[in-house]
Design goal:
63% of the residues lie in helices and 0% in strands. The protein is mainly alpha-helical and 220 residues long. The protein folds into 2 domains: 1-70, Homeodomain-like (Arc Repressor Mutant, subunit A); 74-213, Tetracycline Repressor, domain 2 (Orthogonal Bundle). α7 (143-165) crosses α8. The protein is elongated, with a radius of gyration of 20 Å. 34% of the residues are buried.
Length: 220
């Protein structure tokens, strides 16, 4: 991935020494400042829209310091995505953990909270970082894409586990339907805002489960 892609956010400073006073809202350690700046800039402008110079400038450091802390922009992208994944699973587990053994309640709770989370996240200007990475990184060997593909596979696996516990008519079809509903909701929010289709995601999840459990002894 080029450090200065077409349409990239350009740096507004030249070589800034590490001793320069960082933004008061940023961490003090150089590596942490670079990481924090990268996540913020990637969220606002996309992975391909931000170059190494812009990240270093925003972090109050320079390009040389950037490469002392990260082997490449690609590796930094992967690390940012891993942190987004960690935060996502923490959120997921805190929501669904109290309802262990109640798959339907877990799914309902997840989708209701998902709608609230996505609609209330004013800083998420480009949607889900992990979902966007699939579109922005076509190279299957890119470390960032590998992180994202594995993340998506884990989400699907969790839905499959739940739908099997639910004893749905066709667990994998239901799991894939729930997966597509969640993924598609991110894009619909960007296209239509909070008043668009995303507001019905929780109702849609319930309807899918009702359909797949009709006439069956589904628990949870």
């Amino acid at each position: 991935m080029s450090s200065k892609p077409v349409g990239a956010v350009e740096s507004q400073c030249s070589s800034t020494p590490d001793s320069a006073e960082p933004n008061k809202c940023k961490p003090t350690r150089v590596r942490d400042r670079i990481f924090s700046s990268a996540r913020e800039l990637f969220s606002r402008h996309g992975l391909r829209g931000v170059g190494v110079d812009a990240i270093a400038c925003d972090a109050g450091t320079n390009k040389m310091s950037f490469y002392r802390n990260f082997a490449s922009k690609d590796e930094l992208v992967a690390e940012c995505l891993r942190e987004s994944e960690r935060e996502f699973w923490q959120w997921w587990d805190e929501l669904t953990g109290p309802f262990e053994g109640q798959p339907r309640k877990q799914i309902e709770t997840l989708f209701d909270a998902f709608v609230t989370k996505v609609c209330n996240d004013e800083d998420r200007t480009r949607g889900c970082a992990l979902a966007n990475a699939i579109v922005e990184i076509p190279d299957v060997d890119h470390p960032g894409r590998i992180v994202t593909v594995e993340f998506k596979a884990r989400i699907r696996a969790r839905f499959v586990q739940w739908t099997r516990e639910l004893r749905a008519r066709d667990p994998e079809v239901l799991a894939d339907s729930l997966f597509l509903l969640m993924d598609g909701s991110y894009l619909s929010r960007l296209a239509f805002g909070d008043s668009g289709p995303i507001r019905h995601a929780g109702h849609a999840a319930r309807a899918l489960m009702d359909q797949h459990c009709a006439g069956r002894d589904c628990t949870g």
